[in-house]
Amino acid sequence: MFKSFSMELAGRTLTVEVGRVAKQANGAAFMHYGDTVVLSTATASDKPRDGIDFFPLSVEYEEKLYSVGKIPGGFTKREGKASENATLTSRVIDRPMRPLFPKDYRNDVTLDNIVMSVDPDCSPELTAMLGSAIATCISDIPFDGPCAMTQVGLIDGEFIINPTSAQKKVSDLALTVASTREKVIMIEAGAKEVPEQTMIDAIFKAHEVNQEIIKFIDRIVAECGKEKHTYESCAIPDELFAAIKEIVPPAEMEEAVFTDEKQKREENIRQITERLEEAFAENEEWLPLIGQAVYQYQKKTVRKMILKDHKRPDGRRIDEIRPLAAEIDILPRVHGSGMFTRGQTQILNACTLAPLSEAQRLDGLDENETTKRYMHHYNFPGFSVGEAKPSRSPGRREIGHGALAERALRPVIPSEEEFPYSLRLVSEVLSSNGSTSQASVCGSTLSLMAAGVPIKRPVAGISCGLVTGDTDDDFILLTDIQGLEDFFGDMDFKVAGTEKGITAIQMDMKIQGLTPEIIKGAIENTHKARTYILDEVMLKAIAEPRKQLSEYAPKIEFVQINPDKMAEVIGSKGKVINRILEESGVDKIDTEDGGKIYVSSPNADAIAKAVSMIKCIAEDPEVGQIYTGTVTRIMQFGAFVEIAPEKEGLVHISKLAKERVAKVEDIVKEGDVVKVKVIEIDDKGRINLSIKDCLE
What we know:
Blueprint: E1 3-9, E2 12-18, E3 27-33, E4 36-48, E5 57-63, H1 84-97, E6 107-117, H2 124-138, E7 148-155, E8 158-161, H3 165-170, E9 173-179, E10 184-194, H4 196-224, H5 238-247, H6 250-257, H7 262-279, H8 290-307, E11 324-328, E12 336-342, E13 345-354, E14 360-361, E15 371-372, E16 374-379, H9 396-409, E17 422-431, H10 436-451, E18 460-468, E19 475-479, H11 483-488, E20 491-497, E21 502-509, H12 516-541, E22 555-560, H13 566-570, H14 575-584, E23 588-592, E24 596-601, H15 604-618, E25 626-635, E26 638-644, E27 647-652, E28 673-681, E29 687-690
Parallel strand pairs: 5-6, 16-17, 27-29
Antiparallel strand pairs: 1-2, 2-3, 3-4, 4-6, 7-8, 7-9, 9-10, 10-21, 11-12, 12-13, 13-17, 14-15, 18-19, 18-20, 20-21, 22-24, 23-24, 25-26, 25-28, 26-27, 28-29
Helix pairs in contact: 1-2, 1-9, 6-8, 9-10, 14-15
């Protein structure tokens, strides 16, 4: 017998079934939100994994195409590698839940979410987020939950909770907020230049809804929750810390980490670690723990320096940004390039333009998203952090950082009608010491403007860090965190936007939530920093998008015709359009529903010729119009002239010249190019032309 629990959530029914399926998992929740169905499970190993110094949490989000009535493409006809959306959803589930597990827990934990049915109006991603939280809360796995998640849209100035598919398409905001009972623990947002105060209001609106969901989860846990199992703690013994401090006093550790050169700091720590390994060489119990102990010693030292002494490891003020530099045209043959440097973090971005037919095709669960014309890719090679490792296919980090930069820039990318191109941006991390994703946003803006893409406004990004003390009021916010402050701090609050407002937020947490004061302070600090970066650095490198595209970029012209004429432009088996391609010399002609045609070529004259031919076909001739056509047939009574592909008219012998003509061949021959005027279109649609009326 299973138990079922229901609540109304944003006008739709959320139902959780416990004990119906997956009974061998530590915890399982069979989630129903409208017609969306997701099976969420939480499973943990019996013993900790040996030889690791981190919590081995795996989060999976499995998109099954049967959920939307599709058969996967390809030869195997089954789901394979996780889609980008699946990877990003897994990350969104991971980020709020990871801080709620015990810090000394080393048992493997897997949170698996299988999407089995999709209702377009009830987000499977949100359903999986809630399912993972519920499955973990009712399991015997140690977890300091519950947590809940809510999505917020913004339409005509009104907040929409868990927007439907149609609402998402017109919304100015796509916000996901996760909360514990008292605090916000995760924020993920994409926005169309939403003002800071509006974003803050939206965050706390979601937080309110989350409290109702948490009450619902509490009810489920009260009836179905298991007692949490005991586990083997992997905490570092206090005796080891005491012994280390005898050898390496706190003042020496402060000196070791107090530098803005990452390589120098790492060398200092390496030497300290070697001394400790020599000192404890005979202690087989302590020796394997030295690396983690030194890491925690560094962490405590850096946090004390920042929180108590207001000293940052690189000597900066609390609100000071690292040295900045912006450059363009680094790569001469690409369509646009920009390089942005912030301290030891350096990004080189390249912009590539292509016809719309080069847009990425998506094979996912969202029927509204089948293509993507703007793509952003992020690469993080080993050399960027001084590591000797080969580059492989992108992992979750690369996919996540690329998606964040893409989300930040999407609101300023011109529409297809304004700019009929597919765009690919690639951010190459040349050097990394924190905040590479936001440096990617800045570098991408530079490359777009250098490429001549008419973006609405430039976008900049910055990260804000946090170090907390023993109380909620004891905290300090850090503008522009470097790697060490990210590793040892409590928060990485990334905000991107224009002068008008926010376009993207991503917040990573290591503690169990933020107070309203911290959130407001972080948004205010990033706004000031973002404005400074734009005005003082980026716009001084390039003030506005170039008016001309690179000579190496394809030229594309958009033509709108009557949709009823599209068949004539294409012709039987593509005969007409292939002829246009051949005679004009353009590279590509792409057609879309609604009478949209895109002509691309590096040669502007070729484009003009192709566009003229298309318009001639698509537009019905009118009396008085003049065309340049080709003589196709000679008859006794006149000559037939093709004024557009597959469209002919007759020039009667009397209309060939001003004087009397005895023989048609005396004036024109097959293949001659002549200027003709439409003088009549009869009731059968036959076109009568005149050469005589074009003569001066």
